[in-house]
Amino acid sequence: MARRRSKEKQPSKEDYQLKEKLKIEEGVFDTRTMLRIGKLFSKGVVASMEFIIARGKEADVYLADAGEKLDTDFLALKIFRLENARFQKRIKYIEGDPRFGKVKNTVSEIVGAWCKKEYGNLLVAEAVGVHAPRPYAFNGNVLAMEFIGREGKPSRTMREEKLANPEKTLNAILEDARRLYSGELVHADLSEYNVLMKEGVPYLIDFGQAVHIKHPDAQAYLERDVFNILHYFSKRYGIERDAAEALRSITK
Ligand SMILES: Nc1ncnc2c1ncn2[C@@H]1O[C@H](COP(=O)(O)OP(=O)(O)O)[C@@H](O)[C@H]1O
Ligand SMILES: [Mg+2]
Predict the structure, then answer these.
(1) Which ligand ends up closest to the CA of 125?
(2) Is 194 in the pocket of ligand 1 (CB under 6 A)?
(3) Which residue's C-alpha comes closest to atom 13 of ligand 1?
(4) pLDDT tens for residues 115-124?
(5) Is the CB of 154 under 6 A from ligand 1?
């Protein structure tokens, strides 16, 4: 956007102050993302940024100090990349879902819809009692949610942990899949990478691609989720469960 270029060369005083407050070096976030974090800052959701928890292909997740509006010390900020062409492939998870209309095929629009969708999916998860991060707010490509961890130390993924009680953990994950289904959602990216272990309890994360059960591929995604989880527990812990039975227990 040529109109903005001259402004960008010389950051405004507000931009400068914001960067100072956010403790982030210049150049880490683009201007739009900065402004959106700034909005969450002025709404009392975010107080300051701490450090990066995970760097992904589509999004980075940061630990942040919670603002005065939240009744917690920390939160996780998931910031989706605006310059990411991979999102073009993801449109099928949005357009087949009856909750969404047609989304324009620009990366920025798809990313915005994706972030909003993850927020909405997390609200459903919360409503039906799934162990998942509580969503606090979103703005454009920035999602603020409950931090899963202790004293600023993020919980590890299930893959990084040797489970003390794998049977119990598997049951808890299947029960959460059942609860999610009762809220008419299928996670659609369930795996040992998208489960965090906090004090022995599995928390499901990464709800961007979760779809409504009326999505034409919802059943196939559910089968894939169940397959991934059962396969992992079989391979790593030697636990064998019948996939058809597990599916029935989720959809009953
Ligand atoms: N709410 C959270 N609390 C703590 N850590 C989180 C949270 N959300 C994500 N993470 C960390 O960030 C990583 C990437 O997040 P995820 O939502 O899975 O994004 P991606 O789409 O990049 O896989 C996770 O594996 C986890 O380590
Ligand atoms: Mg993930």
Answers:
(1) 1
(2) yes
(3) 54
(4) 999 999 999 9
(5) yes
| Cβ atoms 167, 239 nearer than 8 A | yes
Regarding whether 165 and 80 lie in a shared domain, the answer is no
Please confirm, yes or no, whether 65 is among the known catalytic residues.
Answer: no
- Judge if 158 and 144 occupy the same domain: no
pTM higher than 0.85 for the full model? yes
Q: How far is CA 250 from CA 14, 219, 240, in A?
A: 50, 11, 17
Same domain flag for 85 and 99: yes
**Residue 9 falls inside a structural domain:** no
Please tell me which residue, 209 or 89, carries the higher pLDDT value.
Answer: 209
Told to judge if 97 belongs to the known catalytic residues of this protein, a careful annotator would answer: no
Q: Are residues 140 and 33 in the same domain?
A: yes
Atom 10 in ligand 1: which residue has the minimum CA distance? 61
Using alpha carbons, list the distances in angstroms from residue 188 to 14, 43, 233: 41, 32, 18
Does 113 fall in a domain? yes
| Domain at 52, CATH number | 3.30.200.20
CA distance 49 to 24: 7
Q: Which of 15, 206, 225, 242 is catalytic?
A: 206
Per-residue tokens: 13:
């005083």
Mean pLDDT for the stretch of residues 34-63: 93
Looking at 132, 150, 168, the residue that finishes a domain is 150
